[in-house]
Amino acid sequence: MQNVAQSWLVWELTRSPLAIGVVAFFDSMPRLLIGALGGAIADRFDRRRVLLITQTLAMIQAIIYWLAVWFKVIAFWHIVVLAFFLGIVNTINQTARQSLVNSLVPKEELLNAIGLQSSVFNFSKILGPSAGGVIIASIGVAGCFFVNAVSFLALIYNLYLMDLPPWEGRVGRQSIWEDIKEGFVYVRGSRRILHIISISYVMAMFGAPYNRFVPIFATNTLRIGPTGFGLLMSAPGFGATMAALFLASVKNLRVGIRWICACVLGFAVSLTLFAFSHSFILSFLFLAMVGFCQRHHLICWDVS
User: Fold this and answer.
1) Rounded-to-integer distance, Cα 211 and Cα 122, Å
2) What domain range includes position 244?
C-alpha cells in the first residue's frame, strides 16, 4: 500500500521519470549493499526481536510519512531519505523473516513451507495496491499512509503472540564483520551459489525497480486514475501468489541454475511486453507474468 502511495506521490510532486528513478535507486541500494549485514544480524540475534524492532521502525517511518503529507510539508528529498531508511529496515526484516521460516520447518518440507509463506505474503501485494488505489482516490495519499501506519499494530501484536522455540545464542566470540567475511568466502568458494547471487544482483539492480515507473504508464500510456493504477500494481502480486501456490503443491522439484535462468528470462520478456502494451488488460496480464517469474526465481533461490 505504501509503495503505491509513494510512487503516486512522487509522480504528483515532480512529474519526472528521473525523480521516480532516484527514489527507486535509494530504495533498492540497501538491499544490494547491506544484505550480508542483514543475514549476519539474523544469524546472531533473536529473530523475533529483530522482526519486532524492524516493524516498529517501519511503523515510525509510515507515521512520519503520514504527518508530512497531511501537513503538506513533504518535499522530494524527504521522500528519498524515507525510502532509503525503509530500504535498510526492510532488508534486515526480510532476511530475519525468511531465516525464521527455515529454522521452524524440516528441510524436506522447506519448499512447501516457503511456497505457502510466500503465497500469504504475496496476497498482500494483491490486496494492498488495490486497496491503496481506492484509498488514494477516496481520501487521498495522506489517508493511505495513515492506514498503512495503523496496520503495523496488528503485525507487531501477531509477532508478539507467535509460539516459537527458545532462542539459542551462538557460541563463540567471532565479530559480526568476521561473519560477513566468512559468508563472502563461502559464496566465492561455491560456483553454484555465486552464479545464483550474481543473477539475483543483476535482476535486482536493473529489473526489480520497474514498479516505481508504473505511475508513468498508468497516466501517460493507459490513462487510468488512482484506482486503475492500484489494480495495475496488484498484478505482480497476483502472479507471485500463483507461483507460490504452484511451488507449494509440488512434491519433487529439481531446482538448478537452468531453471532459475529460465525464470529470469521469463521476467525480462514479460516486462518488455508490458513496456510496449497500450491495453490495460494486456498490461495487467504481462505484469502478472512478471510477478510469477520473479517470485518463482526467488523461491527457487531460497530453496537452493
Assistant:
1) 15
2) 2-303
Q: Is the pLDDT of residue 127 over 60?
A: yes
pLDDT at residue number 162: 81
End-to-end CA distance of the chain: 30
- Please report where in the chains the cell 510539508 appears, as a residue: 73
d(CA 10, CA 129): 16
Whole-angstrom distance, CA of residue 84 vs CA of residue 23: 8
Query: Quick one: which of 213, 230, 224, 225 has its CA closest to 129?
Result: 230
Nearest-angstrom CA–CA distance, 138 and 227: 9
pTM score: 0.79
Instruction: With beta carbons less than 8 A apart as the criterion, state whether 3 and 230 touch.
Output: no
pLDDT digits over 60-76, tens only? 999 999 999 999 999 99
Distance CA 144, CA 1 (A): 7
**Whole-number Å distance between alpha carbons of 237 and 243:** 10
Question: At residue 294, what is the residue type?
Answer: Q
Instruction: Return the exposure string of 216-235: e unless at least 16 CB atoms fall within 10 Å of the residue's CB, then b.
Output: bbbbeebebebbbbbbbbbb
Q: Residue 16 is part of a domain; what is its CATH number?
A: 1.20.1250.20
Transcribe 149-189 into DSSP letters. HHHHHHHHHHHHH---PPP-PPPS---HHHHHHHHHHHHHH
**Dihedral angle of Cα 70, 73, 77, 83, to the nearest 10 degrees:** -20
- How many domains does the chain fold into? 1
d(CA 234, CA 258): 28
pLDDT digits (tens, 9 = 90+) for 34-46: 877 887 887 788 8
